[in-house]
Amino acid sequence: MSDSVKPMNSPEPLGQLPKPVTSMPSLAKVEAGHRAHTPSAVLAKIRTSHPRSSRVPDQIFGVIILLSAISVFAIVVLVVWELVSKSQLSLHQFGLKFFYGHDWDPVNGNFGAMPFIYGTLVSSLLALVLAVPLSVGVAVFITEMCPQSLRAIISFLVELLAAIPSVIYGLWAIFVLAPLLRVYVEPFLAKTLGWTGLFSGTPYGLGMLAAGIILAIMIVPIIASITREVLIAVPQNQREAVLALGATRWEMIRIGVLRNARIGIVGGIILGLGRALGETMAVTMVIGNTPQIAKSLFAPGYTMASVIANEFSEATGDLYLSALVEIGLALFLVTLVVNALARLLVWSITGGTARVRA
Amino acid sequence: MGVGIEVHGLNAWYGKNLALNSIDMSVPANHVTAVIGPSGCGKSTFVRCLNRMHETIPEAYAEGSVKVGEMDVYGSGSDPVEVRRRIGMVFQKPNPFPTMSIYGNVAAGLKLNGFRNRKQMDELVERSLRLAALWDEVKDNLHKKSGASLSGGQQQRLCIARALAVEPEVLLMDEPASALDPISTSKIEELIFQLKQHYTVVIVTHNMQQAARVAELTGFFLMGSLIEYDKTEKIFTTPADKRTEDYVTGRFG
Asked: Is the Cβ pair A243, B250 closer than 8 Å?
């Protein structure tokens, strides 16, 4: 600061400063000046070559961009086409009943996807319930309250969580999480919240609850790092505006930061949910792999991704294989519906204001 | 009604950098006081010290004595939240809340203060918008339109209304018109002139004509010091200090 103001003190450079302009030259004079002026050779060359050189690259660029946009669309169409055509047998055999049927009996050739759809939805929902408050809390701490020196370390650790392979999470869940749940957490939940019916039955350790928790741990880094980026992007002047009205720190975070960032946060949650719905390995290792619909979260379950991974290699017979592909189709549809619902949610909470957001 | 501000020995730092060097200044109630000076001279820092916004920047702190009316801003029992509730602030860049309606923006401060009475709130919002000379332009879209959908000049008047809604005793304005076009600027200036009936206004500006137009008193800052502080007329016609004269005649800055 001190060196930038220095010249103001020394009298010499002040005298050399040009006098302020007192009157503007009239427009006519300026234009006449332009016409009389002959452009230099370089300028002339740029002017003549410019139109030719810009049009062709722009067209090439446009085609490349269009192709990439179309390719995304084409991949989706191809995936759906493949799923539908490979599951024809099962589609014809069971029709819509496949999606709400409860039986999964490969020996007798009876296939219903409901237990898997249920398992996928419940484990993912449980994961969201646990992960969203934690992730938003982590992001708020990193951006608003953390000392500068800790900020990079915590961000790095959060992102490191995302880099751990899911099979490692699965192993950790089997050897550490499940025993903890069996011995401490589940008996405690059964005692205090058993009356809800959600926490009753034998505490196995492995089951829907374990799957939900391990999924939550896996999606925290996704939601937290996206939320952190969104919070950082909230302009500082929004925070100042709230503070200057006489807000406490918590009010400032709630009104000046989270409220402005809510669309981005929901976007992060949707991405996390996408990962939870499709996650296979860790869930397969801890959920118990039993195709049933049980009210208690202690009971084992099964997810769509898990059943495909577990049974695809041993599927004997065309109908069995076809049913597994149709499970894949169901997973695709569930993901589509969940995403659509999430968009609808964003649209409804923001009303018209989302569009004018800078 | 506005109250006066007494500043004694105010020092402000950014980390190890001294930005304000023992400022003494007495701002009278119900007057407009302008603070001018070249970029980096500490004029924004000075007004941000008056409502303790300065310390919200990491590693920034201030010490000294600032009395706003009876309130000791840097006293041991003083709460920055309480200070800011009583001293309104308008910033350089209009910063309405984009996720709130026009009504919501003005009512935001009231809601923060635990104000819940709907009918009274309607009245206060209308009064504030009228004071800020924005009511006629927005009265049909109070709830429909977002604060961010207004033009830049309207947004700044909305921010003024938002600051006025909580009925502060002092209004601080940090270059409130520097991001606006000439027509919006003249509306804001006219507004500032009106506001001094109810409030004490301190305005930071790098536009000397603006200071001459709206302010009765003007302080000239240079390198973190208050060089000269006097009636605006005196500052612009017969300043006592050579540096003030150089600045107001456009020889630097």
From this structure: no
Measured CA to CA, the distance from residue A292 to residue A119 in angstroms comes to: 8
Tell me the pLDDT tens digit for each residue of A170-218. Answer: 999 999 999 999 999 999 999 999 888 899 888 889 999 999 999 999 9
| Sign of the torsion formed by the C-alpha atoms of B211, B212, B214 and B216 | positive
Helix boundaries (H) for A87-146: 88-94, 97-100, 114-140
pTM above 0.90, yes or no: no
Closest residue of chain A to B39, computed from CA coordinates: A5
Over residues B225-251, the pLDDT tens digits come to 999 999 999 999 999 999 999 999 887
pLDDT band at A9 (very low <50, low <70, confident <90, very high): very low
Report the gap between the CA of A344 and the closest CA in chain B (Å): 17
Residue B182: count other Cβ atoms within 10 Å of its Cβ. 9
Chain B, nearest residue to A256 by Cα: B97
User: What is the sign, positive or negative, of the torsion defined by CA atoms of B5, B11, B12, B18?
Assistant: positive
- How far are the Cα atoms of A28, A30, A38, B181 from residue A25, in angstroms, in the given order? 8, 7, 20, 22
Q: Residue B13: helix, strand or coil by DSSP?
A: strand
Backbone phi and psi for residue A336, each to the nearest 5 degrees, phi listed first: -60, -45
Q: Do B97 and A259 touch (CB under 8 A)?
A: yes
Residues 6+ apart with CB under 8 A from A160: A221
CA-to-CA dists, residue A75 to A70, A72, A82, A328, B73, angstroms: 9, 5, 10, 16, 64
Give the three-class secondary structure for A274: helix
pLDDT tens-digit series, residues B99-155: 999 999 999 999 988 888 899 999 999 999 998 889 999 999 899 888 899 999 999
DSSP A214-247: HHHHHHHHHHHHHHHHHHHHS-HHHHHHHHHTT-
Residue identified by tokens 């003007």 is B218
Q: Do residues A231 and A139 make contact, with C-beta atoms less than 8 angstroms apart?
A: yes
Say if residue B156's pLDDT is above 60: yes
User: What per-residue confidence (pLDDT) applies to B222?
Assistant: 93
**Interface membership of A244 toward B (CB under 8 Å):** yes
Q: Is the pLDDT of residue A114 over 90?
A: yes
Strands A110-111 and A104-105, by their bridges, are antiparallel
> How many whole angstroms from its chain centre is CA A215?
14
Of B190, B151, B173, B177, residue with least CA distance to B34? B173
Please give the Cα distance from B86 to A30 (Å, whole number).
53
Q: Model ipTM?
A: 0.91
| A356 contacts B148? CB cut-off 8 A | yes
Minimal CA separation from B204 to chain A, in Å: 16
For residue B89, give the 3-state DSSP assignment. strand
Phi and psi (nearest 5°) for B11?
-115, 140
A150 token code pair: 């800790």
Whether residues B84 and A243 touch (CB distance < 8 A) is answered with yes
